[in-house]
């Protein structure tokens, strides 16, 4: 077995001590007694390339454990390198801005992911993925105002007096002022929806945007995605409903939010639009969200009873 630690040196707090993280990894690896490698990312998506290359090099007769040491973006890159590879499992050692995906498994369990030693006797479970025009997501993908917020959030998270999760709120306010709706053509379960839309989200996980929880019972292992479609509404209306949307109270907004459970959705725009994939951004005029059942092997820390955590959402 080989262990690969992917470190994003600019994730979260740039002032954190990378040497301290390396020392923790070395101590952890010594206890395991297995070969290990530390890789610092240098460019977008090079983590995906590194994971894929390493998995190919060890072959099917061995196992590769990948530790995404960064935020949700680092985790997403590792997911794209490990997706649909039977010899590879990934996990998240969170040190980014949001670290939203692992909150799916309960706020009380997030601290366990900060303890490398908890992975020594961890458990590997398959989780679903979202295929987005060939780019994989593991958490939440979206189109519309919240994708634009995700596109701009790092501009504000870097400002000292804003920073952190407050950057999401600042980005939201700025994008509301810019305009909040666009006409899309959406295909889902044989139904065509063609109208002005403020946002669409496809949920495999439960949290995004620094703590927004649009579908609290979304499950990353049930072979289906939870979709919310928010009609094109006014700026004032968005301001009025943001808190309820963030807390998963979409059923109170059924007049303006359509809810679907399905394995795929296609969205087409009259012009290019941004798509949020686990906080990473692509631009296109057509996107397909397709579920990939059991698309990734995920390593959970010891002390977590995965079935109990997930069953809380069923």
Short description:
This protein is of the alpha+beta class and 314 residues long.
How are the secondary structure elements laid out?
Elements: E1 2-7, H1 18-32, E2 36-40, H2 46-58, E3 64-70, H3 72-82, E4 88-94, E5 123-132, E6 135-137, E7 140-144, H4 145-157, H5 166-178, E8 182-188, E9 191-203, E10 225-231, H6 235-246, E11 257-262, E12 264-277, E13 280-300, H7 306-311
Parallel strand pairs: 1-2, 1-3, 3-4, 4-13
Antiparallel strand pairs: 5-6, 5-13, 7-9, 7-12, 8-9, 8-12, 9-10, 10-11, 12-13
Characterize the structure shown:
The structure is a single chain. With 314 residues, the chain is α+β, with helices and mostly antiparallel strands. 26% of the residues lie in helices and 35% in strands. A hairpin with a 2-residue loop joins strand 5 (123-132) and strand 6 (135-137). Helix 2 (46-58) runs parallel beside helix 3 (72-82) and helix 4 (145-157) packs across helix 5 (166-178). It starts with a strand and ends with a helix. The mean pLDDT is 88.
Main sheet characteristics: 13 strands, mixed
End-to-end distance = 34 Å
Mean pLDDT: 88
- Can you tell me the residue ranges where pLDDT is under 50 for at least 5 consecutive residues? none
Say how many strands there are: 13
Helix tally? 7
* Helix and strand pattern: EHEHEHEEEEHHEEEHEEEH
Work out the helicity level: 25-40%
Structural class: alpha+beta
């Amino acid at each position: 077995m080989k262990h690969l630690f992917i470190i994003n040196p600019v994730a979260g707090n740039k002032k954190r001590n990378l040497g301290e993280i390396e020392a923790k990894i070395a101590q952890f690896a010594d206890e395991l007694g297995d070969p290990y490698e530390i890789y610092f990312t240098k460019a977008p998506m090079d983590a995906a390339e590194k994971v894929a290359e390493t998995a190919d090099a060890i072959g099917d007769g061995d196992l590769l454990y990948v530790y995404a040491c960064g935020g949700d973006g680092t985790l997403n890159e590792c997911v794209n390198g490990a997706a649909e590879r039977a010899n590879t499992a990934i996990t998240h050692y969170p040190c980014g801005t949001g670290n939203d995906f692992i909150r799916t498994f309960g706020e009380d369990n997030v601290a366990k992911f900060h303890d490398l030693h908890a992975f020594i006797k961890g458990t590997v479970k398959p989780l679903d993925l979202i295929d987005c025009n060939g780019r994989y997501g593991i958490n939440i993908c979206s189109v519309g105002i919240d994708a634009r917020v995700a596109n701009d959030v790092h501009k504000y998270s870097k400002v000292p007096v804003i920073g952190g999760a407050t950057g999401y709120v600042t980005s939201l306010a700025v994008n509301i002022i810019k305009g909040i709706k666009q006409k899309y053509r959406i295909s889902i379960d044989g139904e065509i929806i063609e109208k002005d839309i403020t946002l669409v989200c496809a949920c495999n996980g439960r949290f995004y945007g620094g703590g927004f929880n649009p579908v609290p019972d979304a499950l990353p292992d049930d072979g289906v995605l939870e979709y919310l479609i928010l009609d094109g509404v006014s700026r004032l209306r968005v301001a009025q409903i943001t808190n309820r949307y963030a807390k998963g109270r979409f059923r109170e907004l059924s007049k303006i939010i359509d809810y679907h459970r399905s394995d795929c959705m296609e969205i087409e725009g009259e012009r290019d639009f941004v798509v949020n994939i686990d906080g990473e951004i692509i631009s296109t005029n057509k996107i397909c969200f397709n579920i990939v059942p059991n698309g990734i092997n995920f390593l959970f820390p010891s002390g977590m009873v995965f079935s109990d955590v997930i069953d809380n959402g069923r």
